[in-house]
Design goal:
InterPro entries: AFP_Neu5c_C_sf, Aldolase_TIM, PseI-like, PseI/NeuA/B-like_N, Pseudaminic_synth_PseI, SAF, SAF_AFP_Neu5Ac, SAF_PseI/NeuA/NeuB. This is N-acetylneuraminate synthase. One of its GO terms (biological process) is carbohydrate biosynthetic process. One of its GO terms (molecular function) is N-acylneuraminate-9-phosphate synthase activity. This protein is of the alpha/beta class. Helices cover 31% and strands 16% of the residues. The strands form three sheets. Strands 5-4-3-10-9-8-7-6 form an eight-stranded parallel sheet. A two-stranded antiparallel sheet has the order 1-2. The protein is elongated and about 100 Å long. The chain has two domains: 238 residues, TIM Barrel; 68 residues, Alpha-Beta Complex (Type Iii Antifreeze Protein Isoform Hplc 12). The chain has eleven helices and twelve strands.
């Protein structure tokens, strides 16, 4: 299966579609946000993605309980959910100039809506696709709203059981979505290679035969994404920033521009290297066959002389008799004179 987002084709027969996720790395500066767009385009990313929400569309302003992040291992330990989302959100009035800049630079711009009002807003901006974030994948009213637009939908599977993401895809289908990409995702920030479990990707391809499959990658570096492409991922989503040292809510697990450029290059190489099943010599290799070994005359041989290990050897180049016949030839007699340095033929 394949489909298009803007001018870009998504599917196993096409180079990986690389999504640069800005998230909250604009650090509440529109100038920085536009600089991020420029950097993503210069790195070769195909899409620039935002997140469309406000603190009040995700949660309520309340302290205590699970509203406060107490996990010792969390990047956001000690923060309150409402405060965190207030810090991280992208102001809605920034969306249009950001998308316009992305379009001018040859990318497509779209977003992850976090509630139905965000979908209405994004429809007014005529976005070409939608992304469903992992923590919204069970938000069926949102799924139906997005599906009703008829636009391609990318959905992340983080923190979901297979039956839950299967149900989410079913809801999208029944509500009108025809072009769906399911992303393998590990919802830890950052994720580790050990908990990424890329072997899930081929399973997703079997479970969701009418969908494309990709990876939302929260690990550091690009190795995991490159491996994912080798396993069939058609879409790679990575958070990115200008400089991790600048800080920001997602900077710790975001790529810098040079790394994003490497991601684009190396995932495409991985896709190209997959090729097709090769069980014979390729046309490109034909000239190299001359460097294989074969049986060669290494001493002058007179007619009637016995072939020995001293006058015949298996050496390079490869235009003599195949080495498989070497033992059978030894002990036989030459039927004609043979010169040193000539390929051996039993019957010249």
């Amino acid at each position: 299966m394949s489909f298009k987002i803007g001018k870009f084709s998504i599917g196993s027969d096409h180079r990986p579609f690389i999504i640069a996720e800005m998230s909250g790395n604009h650090n509440q500066s529109l100038d920085r946000a536009l600089e991020l767009v420029d950097a993503a385009a210069a790195a070769g990313a195909h899409a620039l993605k935002l997140q469309t929400y406000t603190a009040d569309t995700i949660t309520i302003d309340h302290k205590g309980g699970l509203f406060d992040i107490k996990d010792e291992n969390s990047l956001w330990k000690g923060k309150n959910l409402h405060d965190l989302y207030q810090e991280a959100h992208t102001p809605w009035e920034w969306h249009e100039p950001i998308f316009n800049r992305a379009r001018e630079l040859g990318m497509v711009g779209f977003s992850s809506p976090f509630d139905e009002s965000a979908v209405d807003f994004l429809e007014n901006l005529n976005v070409p696709a939608y992304k469903i974030a992992s923590f919204e994948s069970n938000h069926h009213p949102l799924l139906r709203k997005v599906a009703a637009t008829g636009k391609p939908v990318i959905i992340s599977s983080g923190a979901s059981r297979l039956d839950e993401i299967y149900e989410s895809v079913r809801v999208l289908r029944e509500a009108g979505a025809k072009q769906i990409c399911v992303l393998k995702c590990t919802s830890t920030y950052p994720a580790t290679p050990e908990n990424t479990n890329l072997r899930t990707i081929p399973v997703f391809r079997e479970v969701f035969p009418d969908c494309t499959v990709g990876l939302s990658d929260h690990t550091m570096g690009i190795g995991v994404s490159v491996a994912a492409v080798a396993l069939g991922a058609c879409v790679i989503e990575k958070h990115f920033t200008l400089r991790r040292a600048d800080g920001g809510v997602d900077s710790a697990f975001s790529l810098e521009p040079s790394e994003l450029a490497d991601l684009v290059t190396e995932t495409e190489r991985s896709w190209q290297a997959m090729g097709s099943v090769q069980l014979d010599t390729q046309k490109a290799e034909e000239k190299s066959r001359q460097f294989k070994r074969s049986i060669y005359v290494v001493q002058d041989i007179s007619a009637g002389e016995v072939f020995t290990r001293e006058n015949l050897r298996v050496i390079r180049p490869g235009d003599g008799m195949a080495p498989a016949f070497y033992e059978q030839v030894l002990g036989r007699k030459a039927s004609a004179d043979m010169k040193r340095g000539t390929p051996f033929k039993l019957f010249p």
